[in-house]
Please model this.
Amino acid sequence: MRPELKFGVIGSGMGGLAAAITLRRKGFAVDIYDRAPEPREIEAGVTLWPNATGLFNKWGLLDAALEQGCALRSIELRSWNGKMLTSSEAIGKYRFPTLCMHRAGLIALLRGAIPRDRFHGSATFDHFDLDQESPIVHFEEGTSAKADAWVGADGLHSKVRSQIHGKRAPHFRGYQRYRGIANGDHSSVREKAFESWGYGKRFGACPIGHGRIAWYATINARPGTLGDPRIWKAELQDRYSNWHNPIPLLIQSTPDAAISKDEIYDREPLFEWGRGCVTLLGDAAHPMTPNLGQGECMTLEDADCLSESLANNLEIAECLRTYEFFRYERTRFMTLDSRRLGEMGQWVHPLAVLIRNLWLRFLPQRTIDARYATLFDYGD
Ligand SMILES: Cc1cc2nc3c(=O)[nH]c(=O)nc-3n(C[C@H](O)[C@H](O)[C@H](O)COP(=O)(O)OP(=O)(O)OC[C@H]3O[C@@H](n4cnc5c(N)ncnc54)[C@H](O)[C@@H]3O)c2cc1C
Model:
């Protein structure tokens, strides 16, 4: 692969940034284009499992991430009233930590590893011309840009994907998610994350450092019913008032403005992502429900695999298809497994919930720990 090749990346989310970092590490020139004039983030946490923190270590960013976030020692799954269903301390024993941190901090960390003049804001992808030797991308703002290869990292509603595969809406999975950041030191969430399951509702929380706790709550819902943001906190207080501690307290200690709500979507796995010198990465390629917390981690793995697939003597389009081939099975597994877990977590029927909880309580520890090992198994 000629090191003078120039890459264009559409989207400066976690995927676009990680792709730029790994491609630059291989010596390629990279420009990043995003529709937003400036980066913006909502109040939410992110979990980087050992498969992702190993990559941060490879890219020389792990120490800075550790300074910002909180490394977990254990993880617990409880029922809504606090009864333990499963727990594991295996995550504290991997070579690389499981790290929870603020999304904005993570994005800033990745952004800081790329020179400022490589970012181009207010550049909304409209379409590309593939007929040229070097594909040209045209932006809605009337500008265009040329590169030897393009990476579409433009998220769930990717327009790059639509141009290649046709416009298809992602699938709504039947539930919504609130997210927030609570202030204060809650001793029951120190160095530990938990998720609690009720009837058609779940609540999870993890410490993200500096005395803050990131939490999320899911509820079954019809599409297009997010409602009025001014009453989201009151809705949560009502829905989780009788759940175990510290859930009501976490909601109480979250400012209204730090609560967001969205709908949960994914797509069916796609075998070949790109065409010619254009490929996809992250949510543009394989959006998944957040139940495994592996959406970000898969995105970071994509970026690593993309740059590793380019480091040989094949034509660029062949390298991109090789990358897609390598990533297909693992991202397919995560998408489908995460979907199944979410469906089970949102069960409402009392008998189904009873059987589920009993099954979880009697799962052997080695089965639980082996499952984590499968999720974290990304060799570099
Ligand atoms: C706010 C937020 C919170 C999340 N929280 C979780 C979580 O808790 N757990 C989990 O597993 N996953 C979560 N996800 C999903 C997870 O972060 C994604 O799997 C991961 O961020 C994928 O990154 P991405 O870069 O592919 O997409 P995104 O992070 O969505 O980034 C896409 C980027 O493309 C830009 N863009 C979009 N369209 C265009 C266009 N036409 N032209 C130019 N630029 C464009 C957007 O402005 C954005 O910067 C979250 C995603 C978001 C956005």
Q: What stands out?
A: The CA atoms of residues 201 and 239 lie 9 Å apart. The first helix runs from residue 14 to 25. The radius of gyration is 21 Å.
